[in-house]
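Job type: complex structure
Entries:
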Amino acid sequence: MYYPPEPFRIKVTEPIRLIAGEEREARLVEAGYNVFQLRAEDIFIDLLTDSGTGAMSQEQWASLMRGDESYAGARSFQRLKAAVEDVFGFKYFVPAHQGRAAENILTAVLVKAGQYVPSNMHFDTTDANIRARGGRPVNLVIDEAFDPANLHPFKGNMDLGKLRAFIGKIGAANIPFGMMTVTNNAAGGQPVSMANLKAVAGLYHEYGIPFFIDAARYAENCYFIKLREKDYECKPVREIAREMFSYADGMCMSAKKDAIVNMGGLLCMNDEEIFENVKNELILREGFPTYGGLAGRDLDAMATGLYEGLDESYLAYRLAQTAYLGACINEAGIPTIQPIGGHAVYIDAHAVFPHIPNYEFPGVSLAVEMYREGAIRGSEIGSVMFGCLDPDTGIWHYPKLELLRLAIPRRTYTQSHMDYVVDSLAKIKDRADTIRGYKFTYAPELLRHFTARFEPL
Ligand code: P61
């Protein structure tokens, strides 16, 4: 594979420092072995998330200076509106301070207790927002998504048979809207094909169910379509994106990913009545509809970032950097989800630590070891994040995959940072059989991975 060099050069730097091994040990104990609880200054390479952690461009910093902080009708809002209409093509939209705020508004307006919201796979904030309204999130991704070695090019696809059967069983009246997450973050940053998304939209619409896209990483998904789907190799990514959104009735988006801003979100829709209700809810929770919980300068940086996130030389470098990290980790004999996804490499923690069962959290063991070995931070995407108690049966459910995600901030780290990560992982692999699992000493009910505390077994 060809790994193109960064299509930018570095104008501003931020120092990072590697603290000593004993110090790292003390920090782990203080953090209750939860890497979310560590101080960022004690981390050398931070791959916890690609959300809001990217480097803004000179144009985005210039956009910040153009920010209009008027409470209502600011110029910055007009600029964002023009970009959102151009890139996505929906009739109406509101800004929100981040993705989960958009999800909160959407679910407040549309979800009633006892209703179901299907998707290929909801990410945890969407899942939690649906549950917080008394609704039930349902994941109907294709089975290939759960086989880490399977090389299906679009492992984020919805299983159309499962979706049809589900709608038939539950009834369209109990489904206020359906979703698709592009790319599928919860299972490998894997893309959805245009053909699948179109078929899903057709199925929802056959039953009169509105269709919303979770668009956090839509640009990366569109670039995968260009690379992998027949008939799209010659289409500009911007056209692919317009086609994708033309099949949907709306979308919610964390702009902290593919719009490359540190803060921001969007909620778009075509239905005027939903828009009216969204605006009222937004005013209550986020702010006036022309700023939605953001400063004017944030709106401006988002407007600029939306175009930069769709730039094809950037996207080629972006996906190649992730592929490079994945390929080097695999060469070191460490299994990851295949193919390598868009924004992150997902290490199969169960395969690294086959002796640690899911209820002893192998993903946490790997997260702790990465910090211990190299002051590197990744995030568990496994039983801590997605293990849940079924309210109907009282039985605990564990996810099919126990993963450690190394998410790559956009335009932030270089190839030698990636090489350092690989070296640290190789050292962990050499002592894998000596590493043990963890148990909770504290765990809240929703989104527990953020604040949970652990002790080693
Ligand atoms: C992430 F540990 N993702 O991947 P907000 N949809 C999708 C997302 O990936 C997403 C949101 C909606 C994050 C941040 C994060 O438990 C965690 O702007 C596909 O973060 O509100 C966010 O967007 C929500 C990390 C979120 C977590 C929740 O790293």
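Summary: The two ends are 42 Å apart (CA to CA). The chain has a mean pLDDT of 97.
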